[in-house]
Structure formats: structure tokens, C-alpha cells
Design brief:
The protein is of the alpha+beta class and about 150 residues long. The protein has helices at about 5-25, 25-30; strands at about 40-45, 50-55, 65-70, 75-80, 100-105, 115-120, 125-130. It is flat, with a radius of gyration of 23 Å.
Length: about 150
């Protein structure tokens, strides 16, 4: 491999590492919220008739989790704590975010809040939100005037 190709590959690898660093340091996740000190990562998907949220909450106790759905947003809150540890003498690496969290997700369309469901399995909170169906026809009753 020639010198230029090596330099290009090295630069691409450097850019890939910087991209990973920036994704992990998103401003929204770094700033403390009013009711929690961290925000769990999540993905939001849209299907034909539903929105889906996948929220990474590994280690969170299911009983501490709360999901509140409104017509155009969903609020996820709870708490994650590590199990009791033995006496710690030194910390070599510290990456897991702990304590209370609060995350609000705005949605681009209205959802049917009465049909929202959620499940917590293998550390992943999955929220399914059916879109609110718009009626194409509405029968308007005519009342007598004065």
C-alpha cells in the first residue's frame, strides 16, 4: 500500500473514532434535567400505523419505571442503581450512568394514548404507540336555528 493510501485510511479511522465520541457525548444526554441527572439512549421508529420507542435501560428496576403518554409526546422516567458493591479502593473506569432519569420524546403526529403499551425485557423498554386515526367522514347533526 502506498503512503497516500495509508494516510487516507489513518484519517478515516480517526474520523470514525471522533464520530463515535461525538455520538456518545450528545448535548441532550450531558446536560442534567430538572428531575434527573442523565438521559438513557433511545431509538424512535415510525411504522404505517404506529410509533415505536426502544429505550436502553439495562440494570433499571422495572418497578421504578414510569411511562406517561400524551397526544404528541411520551415521558419516560425512573431510576437505575448498581447492586451493592464490595469495598472499593480505586475506580479505574466509570461509564455507567446511575440515579434518576427523565426523558421526553416529542412525536411528529398524534397518538392514541388509550392504546399505548410498553414492555420491559432484557434491559430494553419497548413502547408501542398507535397513531391516532383521523376520520375521513364525520356526520354533522343539524339543529334548528333560532
Amino acid at each position: 500500500m502506498d503512503l497516500l493510501s495509508k494516510k487516507i485510511l489513518a484519517e478515516l479511522e480517526h474520523m470514525q473514532q471522533a464520530g463515535r465520541l461525538l455520538r456518545n457525548m450528545s448535548l441532550a444526554r450531558m446536560l442534567p434535567m430538572d428531575s434527573g441527572g442523565w438521559q438513557p439512549p433511545l431509538d424512535v421508529y415510525e411504522g404505517e400505523d404506529e410509533f415505536y420507542i426502544y429505550c436502553d435501560l439495562a440494570g433499571a428496576d422495572r418497578d421504578s419505571l414510569s411511562v406517561i403518554a400524551e397526544e404528541h409526546r411520551v415521558r419516560i422516567s425512573g431510576r437505575r442503581q448498581l447492586p451493592p458493591r464490595h469495598a472499593i479502593v480505586c475506580v479505574h473506569q466509570l461509564e455507567i450512568e446511575l440515579g434518576p432519569f427523565n426523558r421526553v420524546v416529542s412525536l411528529p403526529a398524534a397518538i392514541d394514548v388509550d392504546r399505548v403499551t410498553s414492555a420491559y425485557q432484557q434491559g430494553m423498554l419497548i413502547i408501542t404507540m398507535p397513531k391516532k386515526q383521523r376520520k375521513s367522514k364525520v356526520n354533522i347533526r343539524i339543529t334548528p336555528g333560532e
